[in-house]
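Narrative of activities, Objective 1.

The group set out to show that a structural description can be obtained from nothing but a protein's sequence at a throughput compatible with the screening campaign. Below is one input-output pair from the validation batch, recorded exactly as produced.
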Amino acid sequence: MRKILVSCSVLLLAACGGGSGGGAPKSDNTPFLPTNVLTNNKKVTGMASEIWIAKDGTSSDIVRGATGSAQLHGKEYTKYMLDDVKFTTGDAFDSESFTFSIDDSGAINKIKFARDNFANSEQVRNGTTNDFNVTVTNPNYPNNPANTKLTYESYGKGQGLRYSDFGVLITRGIDGHEWMQNDETMAYIGGYEAKKVSKDDFAENVKFRGRAQGTVSGAGNEKVLRDDAAWLRVDKSTGKETLTAVFDGWYNVAIEKNGNNVTFGISGTPTDSQYELVTPTANLAQGGTEGNYEAVKFDTAYYGTTSDPREAVALFNYSQGDNPGGETQNYKHVVIGFGGKVQP
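Output recorded for this entry:
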């Protein structure tokens, strides 16, 4: 990860007044966010464009090109930037990653995908919106790329997440284009590696409350799932992680991950029978298959300081049925993303 080491007590000098005499001292955690950059970036994500982290885990949000003074009591800080953050998306078998590019002021100006067959290199942001102009290619149609729009929808900023994010990417379909006529939605999660906390280092049981957002699809149809009061819990003694959510018109779900095994518990009855599931197999292997066709993947990440997590994100994928192509009523695919803040 690209980073810059700073070993002085004042990271940024005041633009007026010639240094530390230009204004009142600020606390360690005081952000200096120019209004234009703050507003610009928040149309995309609530994450900071830069974070400064001391060896003791103390952090301060400072956007590149900001002015002001920060009295940091002689601590040695390291700067990490948003364009180093890797976001992941995809299903139980096929992962994709992407990063942002930021300009000299810290404003997001491009998005870049790891795989060229999804979107070629860096794609330019459409003004100050949360849309990016992308060229999408399909290996089966190499000479017929699709020039379309990719929308980045952050649900993390609505939860007040500063060091992580979750949401969806929506690639817009093109009428008349033989292989891209429908919108495609992909959930994502990601965050600053420098702020990541291992659940093995938690000092006690921890719970996070936030938003769960996703879809259940099959036979070409899709139902949106949402719960604004979902929970993610971590049991310190066992390491078990449990995501619970109540989805109106679908199921109440309890997703448990214990080691490399995932159990997808469901209760209730969907209002629309086309979205009903056969009872999922318990203790499915992460990233594996079971029976006729069943696959699962449940990834989580926690952010804060050592033994003190403050934010959490999660991404769950589950498939069942005899046709992974998604063309029959018997095939179902469930995607659920989560983001939330720690609760007492």
